[in-house]
Amino acid sequence: RAIPGSEPLLQERYPHLQDRNPTNPPKHQGSYRILAIACCILFAISLTFLNPPLSWQADYLTGKGEQRTITLADSSRVMLNTDTSVAIHFDKNLRRVELLEGEAFFEVAKGKPQAFVVTVSGNEVRAVGTAFNVRRDSSQTEVDLVEGIVDLQNSQRQQPTRLQAGQSARISAEGITTKTESSEGMALWRDGYLQFDGLPLKAAIDQINRYRTGHIILLNGEFANKRVSGLFRLNALDQAVDSLKAAVPGIQIRTLTPYLIVLS
Question: Are 124 and 145 within 8 A, CB to CB?
C-alpha cells in the first residue's frame, strides 16, 4: 500500500516546469505587445492620410468668430466667414474653389477665359463675373446671388438650374430649390451683423454659436420654436443673448462661465 505523501511532487515529476514563472511572462509576449502597439499607430496614421483634417486640405481658413478676405491669382476676391476653410484649384482650363467648411462670399474677376466654379460636396456653382454667397451645411448648400448669373448643379448631375441676381437656392442630393428675394440683407455678416427675422429660437442659438466663443445650450424644448427677430453686431453677441429674455417671455438665462450659457 502506497504511503501517503510518497508520490513525487509535480515539480519532481515534470522538472521542466520549474522554470515557468507566472509573474514573468516569456519575452516573446512583450514582443507581441510592442507589435500590436505599432500596428495600432500605423492604423491611426493610415486613417489620417485617408481622411486628413480639413486644416491639412485647406489653402485658407478662419477660426471661430474670425473673418478674412483673400485675393486669388486671377484677382477674384473671397471673404471667408467664421470657421471656414477653402482649397484653391486653378489651372489653364478652370478656376475652381472647393468650400470645405463654412461660408464664403465670392467676387469673381471679369474678363477671364476660364470658368469660375465653387464646389461643395459634389454640388457646383458655376459663374462668370458675379458676386454670390455660398454656405455649406451638413446636408445642403445655400447660395445667395447678389450680382450676375450662376448655374447650379447638384451632386447627382441633374439638369442645371440658372440663378438670377436677387435669387437664392438650396442644393441637395434630391434637387435644387430656388426662391426669389431681395439681395438687400444677403450676407449681412460681411458688414459685421447677424440678423434674425422671425427665426425659431433653436436656429437663432445655432447661429450665435457659430460666431461666439463658447457654447449656448437650450434645455427647455418648449421654447425651441419661439420666433425671434433682431439685428446684432457680431462683436457684441452677448447683447443678442440678453435680448432673448425680452423676446421669449419666461425664458431663464444663466451664465455659468463666460464660455457656457444655459437657457431654460
Answer: no
Instruction: Quote the pLDDT of residue 138.
Output: 79
**Predicted local distance difference test score (pLDDT) of residue 139:** 82
Whole-model pTM: value is 0.75
CA atoms of 55 and 100, how far apart (whole Å): 9
Provide the Cα torsion 66, 71, 77, 81; round to 10°.
Answer: -10
Q: Is residue 4 part of a domain?
A: no
Q: Are 206 and 246 in contact (CB under 8 A)?
A: no
Flag whether 2 is in a domain.
Answer: no
- Look at phi and psi of residue 224 and say left if phi exceeds 0, alpha if psi is from -120 to 50, else beta: alpha
C-alpha to C-alpha distance for 173 and 155, rounded to whole angstroms: 6
User: Which of 180, 211, 228 represents a domain boundary (last residue)?
Assistant: 180
Residue pair 190/207 in contact (Cβ under 8 Å)? The answer is no
Q: Which residue has better confidence, 97 or 258?
A: 97
The mean pLDDT value for 80-100 works out to 95
- Residue 39 one-letter amino acid: C
| Average pLDDT of the residues of the chain | 83
What is the average pLDDT across 177-186? 69
Evaluate whether residue 137 is within a structural domain. yes
Domain shared by 160 and 101, yes or no: yes
Tell me the mean pLDDT in the region 44-55: 53
Please state, for a pLDDT cut of 70, what percent of the chain lies above it: 77
C-alpha cell at 101: 467648411
Grid coordinates of 115: 470658368
Q: Is there a domain that residue 229 lies in?
A: yes
